[in-house]
Amino acid sequence: MTETMRILVVEDQPMLLLDLIDQLADRGHQALPAGNARTAARIIGTKIDALVTDIELGDGPDGLALARLATSSHPGLPVVVVSGGVRPAAAQLPAGAVFIPKPYRVADILAALKGQVLSRAA
């Protein structure tokens, strides 16, 4: 992934959100922050290249519902779902999405996104 990606990052814990956004920016990507699924749903209507979402997002829809919404409106969108408490079954994830448990490494998130881009390009 050498080109800049617009990555929607959804995390309800402000410190984790800011940290991930900073790390993605340091690697040349544009991260669009959202603290909950409602805010993220509005951003999904814009041009995004990928989604990284936590599962547990407080009040409102969870990250799995958000990931399904994103992939239904953007088929083929690379999605990484993260969580420190919930371990989803593969059937709960949108087709092609990758689950990474917290704590995660940003390199693992980017590798998962790149893998999805490459598999869809083949």
From TrEMBL:
Residues 6-117 form the Response regulatory domain. The modification 4-aspartylphosphate is found at D54. Keywords: Phosphoprotein. InterPro entries: Bact_response_regulator, CheY-like_superfamily, Sig_transdc_resp-reg_receiver. PROSITE patterns: RESPONSE_REGULATORY. It comes from the Bacteria. GO terms for biological process: phosphorelay signal transduction system. This is Response regulator.
